[in-house]
Amino acid sequence: MKKQIQEHIANGRVEEALQLLVQFDSEAVLLLARYNNAKKQYNMGLIDFGEWQRIQNQVNYAILEMASKIPDDFEVQLPGTSPQPKSAPPQVFISYNHKDAIHMHAVRGYLEKNDIKVFVDIADMGPGEDIQSFIDKAFKENHFVLSLVSENSLQSGWVSKEISAAILLNRLASKWIPVSLGQSFFDPGFYFTASTQIEGKIGEVREHMKKALEADLDTRPFEDEMGRLRDLKANLGSTLESLKKVLVTDISGPMFEPGMQKVLQAIQRAG
How far is the C-alpha of 192 from the C-alpha of 154, rounded, in Å? Predict the structure, then answer.
């Protein structure tokens, strides 16, 4: 609006400038009344050209002064319509495993370049914020959850919980967008390999807990991790089955650009 008002003044369209300004500051009504009254007096011969020009200059100066206070993002309200709040950009929470951080940064950069607001875990957490509380809040407050699905993420206790929550969320509100960093996790062999690796991690945590007990130490530093790993192993089969039932967009290698275009279109359509 500010630029439009300045252009109107530069081109001598004072009344158009005032009509715009009234939408931002009601005090501009007084300027408009003064301008119209002076114009009427000049047309009737009640004031000479010099006085008419002096009043125009005063009004122009006042308009520009008031227009300078208009925020750059203030939108013009069309006559006969109600003011509409400026729509916020879509917000996307990215769920990923830290071993796939380079891919997360590529996805984040692509979305932000296209005016999508992006949140990730550690980068957007406040100091001392509880991880689970942050994840819960991220799922509630963002329009979409984008999961980077890979062999790494499917063997991560945290990401597995996020994917399970996202699957449920998608059933309720269609807010989940899964993208894959390859398709190898769909191979039958991955299920057995991943299960063996998860069991190995469970064995390591079990050993830590055993040592803690033998030393008469608290085992709680290991209990949360043990719970996540057991849930991960128990839910791996159902997670893989759920992924087979939805459209998972491949963004690996040369598929990144066309895949991310599909993701962007899905966000923009739903937003």
Answer: 13
Residues in the chain, pLDDT under 70: 1, 26-27, 29, 72-88, 121-142, 157-162, 164-174, 271
Please provide residue 253's backbone torsions phi and psi, each rounded to the nearest 5 degrees: 55, -125
Pairing of β 144-149 and β 249-250: unpaired
Token readout for 146 is 């984008």
pTM: 0.59
Cα end-to-end span (Å), the chain: 26
CA atoms within 13 A on the CB side of 17: 26
Q: Which fold has domain 91-270?
A: Rossmann fold (3.40.50)
| C-alpha torsion angle, residues 19, 13, 38, 54 (rounded to 10) | 120
| 57 to 6, 9, 25, 142, 202: CA distances (angstroms) | 14, 10, 20, 50, 81
